[in-house]
Amino acid sequence: MARAATIPKTSPEIQAFVRLVRASVAVTRELSAQLSADHGLSINAYEALLTLARAPDSRMRRVDLADSLLLTASGVTRLLDSLECDGYVGREQCESDRRVSYAVLTKTGRDKLREADTTHTRQIRELMGEHFEDGELTQLADLLARLPGVEPADESCAPDS
Amino acid sequence: MARAATIPKTSPEIQAFVRLVRASVAVTRELSAQLSADHGLSINAYEALLTLARAPDSRMRRVDLADSLLLTASGVTRLLDSLECDGYVGREQCESDRRVSYAVLTKTGRDKLREADTTHTRQIRELMGEHFEDGELTQLADLLARLPGVEPADESCAPDS
DNA sequence: AGCCTATACTTGAGGTCACAAGCTTTTGCT
DNA sequence: AGCAAAAGCTTGTGACCTCAAGTATAGGCT
Questions:
Q1: CA closest to A24 among chain B residues
Q2: C17 C1' to B78 CA distance, Å
Q3: What pLDDT band is residue A30 in, cutting at 50, 70 and 90?
Q4: Is A25 on the interface with B (CB under 8 A)?
Q5: CB count in 10 Å sphere of residue A39
Q6: What is the DSSP secondary-structure string of B107-134?
Q7: Which pLDDT tens digit goes with each residue over A134-148?
Q8: Cβ contacts of residue A133 below 8 Å, gap of 6+?
Q9: Domain extents for chain A?
Q10: Which CATH architecture has domain B31-128?
Q11: B66-95 pLDDT, tens digit each
Q12: Cα–Cα dist A88/A85, whole Å
């Protein structure tokens, strides 16, 4: 009986939550170690370079980059500090609004991204793809996208009442 | 065209990986802030208390707790330092092997867990459950369980030779 | 114009984690 | 027994991130 009576049961929500966090920690740790060893980049540093590379003119406001990376403003300041220090990213002032500065991908940064991309994306594909059949990864991605904050909020589809 | 020619494409594996990490960051940040504000516990502190509560005699070797929580040995030392400091966990020496010490849940720790459990599990259910139909959470949990490191490796199914 | 709030960003302080190195004890090998 | 390797744990160091607070600029309102 009831020695375990006070221990919370594991509902589907909690099961999913626990596995989500564990999966992220496990996968991130592995890929982060490889990326760091191979190229000296953190995952967020890589994602930052990638995000910039995809942006128009390879430039973004720091705030928008923070949103993209799910970082706080101060987090992005420090991340860019180190990327600027390595010469991967430059800084430019905005003409019309002197509060904002842009983060701009440099040529060096683009080269670094291209260099890191080859091994990193292969490692991701190996780690993620290994245990899934076709379609299951898409299914997983679709389910994850429903969680709040994962995909940028879609304002356009609010017909409200 | 092809301004974007050097930018990595997004395969299903990478899409799933990116969303996995984003989901974890978003969900963890929210729940961690609530848990910390309401009860002064980090998520790992809560999980540690919970894991201990479920263990036989509410006690575990520190190494095994580290494995359960996906932490390194040093990570668990520091986590337990603070839990011991708060009186939630005690320490006991192993008789037969003097290298190992056990982490033991105290009465105070059990009370704390019970106190935190009510709000925390409700918040998890709200956050996770909100955007899914029946069965989808189980589906998500099942998919996540396939990733390496998420569920403890099952040694028992090695027929070896 | 003056003021008030919001926005963009930076900085200081603190928390959490990993890695590397070190200590002690145990185990396996000869 | 003796020695080497492994296991369990702790500590120093540094990376990364957040929160709170501060600065500076922009925009709206009276």
A1: B21
A2: 10
A3: very high
A4: yes
A5: 18
A6: HHHHHHHHHHHHHHHHHHHHHHHTT--T
A7: 899 999 999 999 998
A8: none
A9: 42-114
A10: Orthogonal Bundle (1.10)
A11: 999 999 999 999 999 999 999 999 999 999
A12: 8
Is residue B161 over pLDDT 50? no
pLDDT of residue A10: 84
What's the CA gap between B135 and B151, in Å, rounded? 20
- Closest A-chain CA to B2: A54
Distance between CA atoms of B92 and B60, rounded to whole angstroms? 10
Distance, CA of A16 to CA of A126 (rounded, Å): 23
Q: If you search the block for the tokens 């065209």, which residue do you land on?
A: B1
Is residue B151 left, alpha or beta, with left meaning phi > 0 and alpha meaning psi from -120 to 50? beta
Distances (CA, A) of A73 to A55, B69, B74, B89, B99: 19, 30, 30, 36, 45
pLDDT at A109: 96
Q: Which of A118, A106, A151 is nearest to A35 (CA)?
A: A118
pTM of the predicted model, to two decimals?
0.90
**What pLDDT score does B1 carry?**
55
Alpha-carbon dihedral sign for residues B80, B85, B87, B88? negative
Cα–Cα dist A90/A82, whole Å: 11
- The pLDDT value recorded for residue A148 is 87
DSSP secondary structure letter of residue A136: H
A residues 88-127 near B, CB within 8 Å?
110, 113-114, 117, 121, 124-125, 127
Domain A42-114 has CATH 1.10.10.10: yes
